Amino acid sequence: MLTMTTTASKRPLRRTQEERRATSEEALVQAAIEVMKAKGVAGLTLAEVASVAGVSKGLVVHLYANKQGLQLAALARLRMDFTRRFGTQDPHAPGIERIRRYVHGIFVGLAHKDSSSRLFSALLSEALFQDRAFAEGVAAMNNATKQFVRECLEEEQSQGKRLASSDLDALATFIMSWVRGVIQMHCINEVAGAAPVDRDAMLALIDQTLAALIDGPAPEAKQPPKRRR
Amino acid sequence: MLTMTTTASKRPLRRTQEERRATSEEALVQAAIEVMKAKGVAGLTLAEVASVAGVSKGLVVHLYANKQGLQLAALARLRMDFTRRFGTQDPHAPGIERIRRYVHGIFVGLAHKDSSSRLFSALLSEALFQDRAFAEGVAAMNNATKQFVRECLEEEQSQGKRLASSDLDALATFIMSWVRGVIQMHCINEVAGAAPVDRDAMLALIDQTLAALIDGPAPEAKQPPKRRR
Question: What is the pLDDT of residues B186-203, one digit of tens each?
């Protein structure tokens, strides 16, 4: 009776099953990210993730089935973190500015050894090597990023900016593709111990290119001849 | 005596050890490419490559030590093939035109199911997952491609074109990075069975961007603040 009185206005001590599940999932995804940052994508084992998160391996299997499931969840979390930090920081900033911040955010991350950008790039590449389900998860996320870029472009278009292409999906795909390409090149050189890619120079070029694509000179009508697929 | 007379002006039937080695290497690299196109990068085994090439597995180990050695040799061969077909087709074409042909050649290749571009992209990604020696091999190749793009840019500069950056290494790295990024996106969507990336739209955007970077409006002096590495 005493106990009940003192805790009545507080949160019940005993959490619902759903709350516990969410807590375990959060801990497991964070643990998976931590393990992959330290040991690489190939170094991920369910046993180690369970141990870092302080749960049983059986629970990991129950929640994510296998390594791929956990990797996809980690990828989704990394993307959400980026979007939260950079994509929606200031929803009133012009579209091109929001794209710039998103790209710069990813690049600045590359300066740090435990970079999420680096792990994100490696997990994306995994799509080429794992099964179709994994690639579908990656493609769905790519689609979400493309959608974000597309909305920024639409906003610029509605402000009367001349975009380099009337096909906004293609333009958005193009923009996110080079960001990914530059990050991949950066990461390869890093693994190789080769001369690092000059991030500041890349960012300056990205800014120039964005400006050229979003409010550059009126696009020429010149198009390469259509090819058969 | 008769035999000697008839073969005297021909190539000797008995090849030197070096010739035989070159023939085996050629057969093995082609076999490795064939096996990886059919079964993916992870599906490569020395035993199967030896069998396809018609040599002993011992010889494969003798020549390439392991899978990584064979994969690096395959990557170098794919790059050489691209360069031979597209990079140096017409050494008298303007630099921007040679870059365009190189990029278009890679993209056209993506239309075919057994595309070398696709395998090349997958092998590049491997650099993030294998050991440093592999990444070093990939970085060295990236460097050779960058050098090709850089020479094209230098030629344009000598013709009085205004380049988007005076740092030609950075500009070359930027150009090759987005080509790689677009190819990776294309390949991921393909594995996922997602809506394909519109290659023609990408090529049109690449052409526009190349034009903007190589002879666009005079670059603005605006540069982002230098960041500490």
Answer: 888 888 888 888 989 999
Domains of chain B with bracketed CATH: 18-65 (1.10.10), 75-218 (1.10.357.10)
For residue B170 the two structure tokens come to: 């950075």
**Which candidate, A150, A144, A114, A88, places its Cα nearest to that of A36?**
A114
CB of B27 closer than 8 Å to CB of B55 = yes
Helices (H), B40-167: 46-53, 57-64, 67-82, 95-109, 116-126, 132-158
The long-range contacts involving B221-228, CB below 8 angstroms and separated by at least 24 positions, are: B222/A207, B223/A200, B223/A204, B224/A104, B224/A200, B224/A203, B224/A204, B224/A207, B226/A200, B227/A108, B227/A111, B227/A199, B227/A200, B228/A111
CB contact under 8 A, B209 and A213: yes
CA-to-CA dists, residue B112 to A105, A198, B7, B101, angstroms: 36, 34, 44, 18
> Using one digit for the tens of pLDDT, what is the confidence trace for A60-92?
999 999 999 999 999 989 888 877 776 566 778
CB contacts of A226 in chain B (<8 Å) are: 200
Q: Which residues in chain B are closer than 8 Å to A214, comparing Cβ atoms?
A: none
> What pLDDT was estimated at residue A1?
38
CB atoms A220 and B198 under 8 Å: no
Q: Which of A20, A107, A108, A27 is nearest to A73 (CA)?
A: A27
B111 φ, ψ (degrees, to nearest 5): -70, -20
Nearest by CB to B181, from A181, A207, A222: name it.
A181
